[in-house]
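Our consortium's second objective concerns turning raw sequence data into structural hypotheses that experimental partners can test. To show how far this objective has progressed, the report includes one record in full. It was chosen at random from the queue rather than selected for favorable results. The single chain below, 272 residues long, was entered without modification.
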Amino acid sequence: DCIPIFKAFSYYYIAKSFFEENNFNAALEIIKKALLLDETLSYVHYLSAWCNYKLGDYEQAQNSCVKSHVCNLYNVNDFFDLKIPQRDILVLGLNSSISSLNRKAYNYFYEELLKFPQKGSQEDFYFKTIYTIINQLEFDGADICDLSVLSEKSSVLPLIKIMSEYKILDDRLLLLERMRRVYTQIDYLEEVYAKSLNEAGDFNASSKILEKLLLKNNISPSIYFYLVSAYVMNKELQKAFNLLGKAEQLFDNSPDILAKIKSIRQKISINY
């Protein structure tokens, strides 16, 4: 019998029009009628989540996101096939759980998000996901993103890797700065941040971070190369040559790295 689904679908569009007019309470009243006809409609639960989120009822918003997520996964008989992207549901749920300081819900949405592999066009999605997490870290409940929990699962490192390749430099720097306030013991994050500062032309700040990494006996070749670049751009050529000499001794068993060091030395000599 298709009549209930048609009626629920009509209610959905009425509710959506109320939502677009910022009349969220009226939209929720119509949503209730739609769900009485069919509780399995993912897009109706998703609209309910957004209404509650806009009204500041984050607990109800995350509950609606759970229902929307589950319905989206298992309801294959939706007559209209009006699918909400699963990631959009989960990001909204994640944001709601952070706003309501609900660690259990936060863990649920975060774990669900990690199930989606990275694919080319998903770069923006991952950026938005990271932004959702990091954008909320500067309030009193910041411990909801417990570093020890995330580090044990090694889930933060892939996120840093994705951010390191994000093309919009200003946005990348904004997120890296916020991550550094929470994750204070991750050398890879510091390296990515310093590289981004190099790209932005802030060579003084970049060199200070990289020098600290070298003091920790970090022997990543890329750190030497970024720091040499910062020294050269700051016109600290003697520092650059000294560092290249140190790198030559350190990587004397690595022909590829030595070749790159030689090439850099030649370029500095020619240009400066």
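The partners drew two points from this record. DSSP finds 15 helices and no strands in the chain. Confidence is low (pLDDT under 50) at residues 118-123, 136-154. Both points have been shared with the crystallography group to help prioritize constructs.
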